[in-house]
Write a structure and sequence with these properties.
189 residues; alpha+beta; H-NOX domain; 2 domains; globular
Length: 189
């Protein structure tokens, strides 16, 4: 059963990364306008940067922030969210671990995605199938949305780049468009 976005919690670390991305993408007045549209207690928490990496924020709030920011930037939610996910992955992959990504294959890295997913989101069961130059990620029991799914796409593509693969292509089918589960199909060279 797919939970409601307000019932799914997101770990604070990617939310902090999203906020850093917005600091680079939007002027302060545009960010403040976004914060004012959030439900309580989040306007003040976002405005004062008081969200900690260990906090949990409702997915509905994170999706709303992403969607409002995309609108403020005049960009489609999917592409904006993907850029935000790429930024968050870059910020979230410690320099200490980056050399390890370079020696692992894209398939091996994506096989760890279910563990990462379960540490970030309080809902969704991810399964991964890898082949030589492709992988399929399936997430069941999760309320997909262009905002969250775009961020996940950006994260995967960035990590793939760390592994040295080129021309990463992603196709996504989403529960927000009636698919029974979110499915990402990645191919690379």
């Amino acid at each position: 059963m797919i939970p409601k976005p307000e019932d799914v919690l997101v770990k604070g670390s990617p939310v902090v990364g999203l906020c850093h991305f917005l600091e680079k993408e939007l002027p302060a007045d545009a960010r403040e306008a976004i914060w004012r549209q959030l439900p309580e207690p989040y306007p003040n928490r976002f405005a004062t940067s008081s969200i900690l990496a260990s906090d949990r924020v409702p997915l509905s709030v994170v999706n709303l922030v992403t969607t409002l920011a995309a609108r403020a930037k005049g960009e489609a939610v999917e592409s904006f969210a993907e850029r935000a996910g790429t930024f968050g992955a870059k910020e979230g992959t410690s320099a200490v671990f980056r050399p390890f990504y370079r020696v692992l294959s894209m398939g091996t890295i994506l096989e760890t995605a279910p563990l990462v997913w379960s540490r970030i989101y309080s809902a969704g069961k991810m399964r991964v199938e890898t082949k030589d130059k492709s992988a399929t990620l399936r997430v069941a029991d999760f309320p997909g949305d262009p905002a969250v799914c775009g961020r996940a796409t950006g994260w995967c593509k960035y990590v793939g780049g760390l592994c040295g693969v080129r021309n990463i292509r992603a196709r996504h089918e989403c529960t927000s468009k009636g698919n029974p589960e979110c499915v990402w199909e990645f191919e690379w060279e």
